[in-house]
Structures are given as structure tokens and as C-alpha cells.
Design goal:
Strand content: 5-15%
Number of helices: 8
Radius of gyration: 22 Å
Shape: globular
Number of strands: 6
Largest sheet: 2 strands, antiparallel
Order of helices and strands: HHHEHEHEEEEHHH
Length: 262
């Protein structure tokens, strides 16, 4: 005879003991099958000797040091930005920018990686999540917004490491540059076995004789841009003044010639 509380205490104790054995069992399986290792990084694009740094600062112009003083002046002087901080403009701009880049990725590479496994296309990282990471994870950085990565995401479940490596190697080097990987595969203590890979993606215009990287001018002049802005606004419940200010920044002449890579 046992009480309900007593039963659940025993059940929890046995369950916790069983769960504690899972990482070892998973790792033993990974080692046995040659999976307990980091992925072999893909080749870098021609002319690139080392991976780009793991920050958006050298990729996205509006989070760069060079643009910082300009944006601070814009926010304090131009009426469209009054009442907003520079980081509010940056984060909202990055949300909209990410929504458009995600749209381009789906358009240029439908079913990306499907031949290697189970592909998932999660939504762009939510604006609130960006703010949380900026305020807590990167609060001590000089430019916190520049450290917001993987705003555009894909997930690929593969049978083995080689399938993931082949997928990465086959990516168009003109569009995808390997940055880094964060892998739990070699770690015996981790119960979730995965490899997080950061890539710089450059959307391209292929309508001419030679493909060229899309710029901010191309993005804001694209008839599909407004739909991306509206979808981003609804998904994140963004204030209209924040959206208007972000679009104003993305349309600025200061950004027009720069690539929309991220």
C-alpha cells in the first residue's frame, strides 16, 4: 500500500536515475559509429583565407562601428526616429532584414539539403528573443546587436556526420561562407547530440549574365519587400513607429550599395 505522493516520488527517482544514464549510452553509440567528433569544416570561398568572425559587425553595415555614430545622429535629429533608441532601430531593422533574407533563401534554394535528411524551416528568430539576448547574453559587448546570430535558421537531421559534411561542402561558396560550429557530438555529458553551424549567406540576383549579390537598394525596391515587412510586423507584434523607423533606415542612401548578406 502506497500513497499517490509516495508513488510519484519513487517514479521520479527511478526516472531521474534512468535519464542520468542516457548521455553515456548515447555517447557510447556515437563513439561506436564514429559520430563522436566535430564536423570537418567545408572549404572557404575563393580568396578567403580564414572564416569570417562570429559577429555581424563585418557583414551588416548598420551594426558596424563605422555606422554607429551616424545612426546615433540620425536617431537624435530625424523626426521619424524621435523617442527610439539606436538599438531599438537596429533590432527592428534586423528583424525585417532577416524576414526578407529568409524569404530569399526559400526562393533561391527551395528544399535546401533535403536529399541529406529531414529538413525543417523554423521561423526567423523573434524580435523579443533578440532583445533578451542583447540585454543578457551580450550586454557587456560594445555593440550588442552585432552579436545576434542565427536569426535566419534551418535544421537538418542526418543519419551521420558525413551527410552533414557533404551538405555543407556542396553549398554554393559564392553564397555561403562557413563561420564556426558549436558541437555537442564529442561531449559525453550532453544528452542532445547536435552541431550548430553558422554561415554567412549572401542572397543573389541571377537575372543577368552573371549572378551578383543583392544590395539594400535591391531589397527595398523588390515588390515582395513590403509583404515581408508586414509579415514580420504581425509575427512579432511590432509597434508601427518602430517598423516605420526601421524601414526608413533600410531605405537610407547610406545603406543602398551595401550587400544584404547576414
Amino acid at each position: 500500500d502506497i500513497s499517490g505522493d509516495g508513488f510519484f516520488r519513487i517514479l521520479k527517482k527511478k526516472t531521474d536515475a534512468l535519464l542520468a544514464t542516457l548521455p553515456d549510452g548515447l555517447h557510447d553509440h556515437a563513439e561506436k559509429n564514429g559520430l563522436a567528433r566535430e564536423l570537418k569544416p567545408p572549404a572557404l570561398p575563393p580568396g578567403m583565407d580564414e572564416p569570417p568572425p562570429a559577429t555581424q559587425e563585418g557583414v551588416i553595415q548598420y551594426v558596424s562601428k563605422k555606422f554607429n555614430n551616424k545612426l546615433n545622429k540620425i536617431v537624435t535629429k530625424e523626426k521619424e526616429f524621435l523617442g527610439m533608441t539606436a538599438d531599438e532601430v537596429r533590432v527592428t531593422s534586423m528583424s525585417i532584414h532577416s524576414a526578407y533574407v529568409d524569404h530569399r533563401l526559400k526562393k533561391e534554394h527551395p528544399g535546401l539539403g533535403k536529399k541529406y535528411g529531414n529538413l525543417r524551416e523554423p521561423n526567423v528568430k523573434e524580435t523579443n528573443r533578440m532583445y533578451i539576448k542583447k540585454e543578457f547574453d551580450y550586454k557587456d559587448e560594445k555593440q550588442p546587436v552585432a552579436h545576434l546570430l542565427d536569426t535566419v535558421r534551418r535544421s537538418l537531421e542526418c543519419e551521420n556526420n558525413e551527410a552533414q559534411e557533404n551538405f555543407l561542402e556542396e553549398l554554393d561558396k559564392k553564397q555561403f561562407a562557413f563561420v564556426r560550429q558549436k558541437s555537442t557530438l564529442p561531449d559525453r555529458t550532453q544528452s542532445v547530440k547536435q552541431c550548430l553551424v553558422n554561415l554567412v549567406y549572401t542572397p543573389m540576383d541571377r537575372s543577368g549574365e552573371e549572378p551578383r549579390a543583392l544590395t539594400f537598394r535591391d531589397m527595398v525596391e523588390d515588390p515582395e519587400f513590403e509583404a515581408c515587412v508586414e509579415a514580420c510586423r504581425k509575427q512579432n507584434d511590432l509597434p508601427s513607429d518602430h517598423v516605420n523607423a526601421a524601414v526608413r533606415l533600410l531605405r537610407s542612401k547610406r545603406l543602398a550599395k551595401h550587400k544584404i548578406a547576414m
